[in-house]
Amino acid sequence: MSILTSPLPHQKDALNEIIARANAYYAGTWRNLPIRPRWHSLVCGPTGVGKTALAMLAAEATNSSLLRISAPGWMPAGAHQRGTRESITVIAEHIAFHDRTIFVIDEMDKLMDSGAGSGSGGSSAGGSDSWRSYVRGEIYELADGRWPSGMRLPDDDHCNEISLDEITTKLRESVFILGVGTFQSWYDQTSSHRSMGFGAELDPCLPEMTADVVASRLPRELANRFNSDLIKLPDLQPSDYRQIALDAERQLPAELQESFRSEVSKRIDRAIDAKKGVRFLEECVMQALKNASMAQAVPCDPNLNF
């Protein structure tokens, strides 16, 4: 559920930067320059700060369509499964239908090998590493403005009217890629450095997880294909929690608003302490729906035997 209709204070700088990059990319004045910038960008930040919602606002501001694919659900070319389409086919079809596209690859950090936290791009054992390699390869080719070898256009009347050369031009000139991720394992590693021994105190002098720190830990192949200046969102502030709760309440049906407001008042302090982000709203909505359901339920006859 997206409850943002305008950016929160902590999101404004990041949103403005995404919009500026996307508009400059679409303008195309860079194409004839001897040095071509890397426009595709990475957005990072803790869970629940509105990274994906930010992409939706950016798409609206730049008159772009929004295509979002979650990296863990990416289906590589050739991995045919009944009822599941290859992600490349979905992307090609979307591009064929739209003039401009902001393409969000969500949970990019899930594509990292287990050893990639150090920036080495090391590999992990097991079959999942093979899947990650295929998906990373396809994403790298898209970021380079190429389709994976052997790709076929969707068997669709509209797509049959556009050639592979035309859809490649659109990929290179009208598709702005945003890689989104929490990179939570790096935050966890940083926050849990301890000296040897049980019960040791946390190190009070840990480095801050800035955008530069995250960028320095990216596998080189990934870093080479995206803008080196990562866009980082900070944690939600207490005032942000209250604002998004108010915005969410206004969008709910009238019969749920009072119960939702009550749940927010019970949970918001714990949500702020635990840094749950907008996820705490889901808990409040679920409890409000449960309350409504219980209020409408027909009481059970105590004389019934089961």
Layout of SSEs?
Blueprint lengths: L11 H16 L13 E4 L6 H11 L3 E6 L16 H11 L3 E6 L20 H17 L20 H10 L1 E7 L2 H8 L19 H7 L2 H4 L7 E2 L5 H14 L2 H21 L4 H18 L10
Parallel strand pairs: 1-4, 1-5, 2-3, 3-4
Q: What is the tally of helical segments?
A: 11
User: Looking at the structure, what is the overall shape?
Assistant: globular
- Give the strand tally: 5
What gyration radius follows from the Cα positions, in whole Å?
A: 23 Å
Beta-strand content estimate:
5-15%
The H-and-E topology, N to C, reads as HEHEHEHHEHHHEHHH
Question: Can you tell me the residue ranges where pLDDT is under 50 for at least 5 consecutive residues?
Answer: 115-127, 190-200
Strand order, sheet with most strands: 2-3-4-1-5
Q: Estimate the helix proportion, in percent.
A: 40-55%
Give the N-to-C terminal Cα separation.
40 Å
Q: What's the overall average pLDDT, rounded?
A: 80
The protein's oligomeric status is single chain
Counting helices, strands and paired strands, the structural category is: alpha/beta
Largest sheet: 5 strands, parallel
How would you describe this structure to a colleague?
This protein has 306 residues and is α/β, with parallel strands linked by helices. It is built from eleven helices and five strands. The protein has helices at 12-27, 51-61, 87-97, 127-143, 164-173, 184-191, 211-217, 220-223, 238-251, 254-274, 279-296; strands at 41-44, 65-70, 101-106, 175-181, 231-232. A five-stranded parallel β-sheet has the order 2-3-4-1-5, with helices on both faces. β2 (65-70), α3 and β3 (101-106) form a beta-alpha-beta unit. α1 packs across α2 (51-61). The two termini are 40 Å apart.
